[in-house]
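Dear colleagues,

As part of the handover before I leave the project, I'm documenting each prediction I ran so the next person doesn't have to rerun anything. This entry is a single chain, and its sequence is reproduced below.
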Amino acid sequence: MDPLAKLLRPKKLQEVFGQEHILAHQQALLQKGSFIFWGPPGCGKTTIARIIGEQPGIRFFAISAVYDGVAELRKVFRQAEEVSLLTAKSILFVDEIHRFNRGQQDALLSAIEEGLLRLIGATTENPSFSLNAALLSRTQVLTLKPLDEDALESLLKRAADHIKRPLPLEATAREKLLQLADGDGRYLLNLAEIIYDQLEATTLSTEQMLELVRHRAPQYDRAGDQHYNLI
């Protein structure tokens, strides 16, 4: 069964929480331009990119700069050329784009310049230091924020609606859970899934909740987005 975070991934920009400052300009996001999404893990970078890429008439390519390089980029470019013959458009999403070296970043330039595809890169690192000037000049950097308490609460409500029961936590334990998430929506849903999966149908105190997630929480890279986000 898919993780709760994947099951609840928004399908429309209107369903994305916590990034209203960016989504207010959603027509520009959907229709044109290349972007670098800069923000912490779990704030919606991959989700927004996928929504943009899954519009009708778009071929969406997704790669990770951790695992892929120039050979994979060339493969994408060839496929994008074939797609363009069918009057369709292409979008390439590069997760952790700051992991590309200068040569790999330069390989993207002509494809963007010639309109072969739109680029959406995601990074947790400051683009001014991690991306070269030529790539930055061809893209617009959009800064995504850590999810605030209202956005995190909205995620928990979405989870409760999906599972059809409230999260079994005392009020103070719920507050602590939001603190643990530290603005990371994916991490919050991972923790909520652990709590929902407990066998005992009891409402947990703060101490019980902490003990449960301490023993069962999966390893999680808070320093960067994971490759499984591309699945």
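The first strand starts at residue 35 and ends at 38. The longest helix spans residues 70-84.

All the best with the project,
I.
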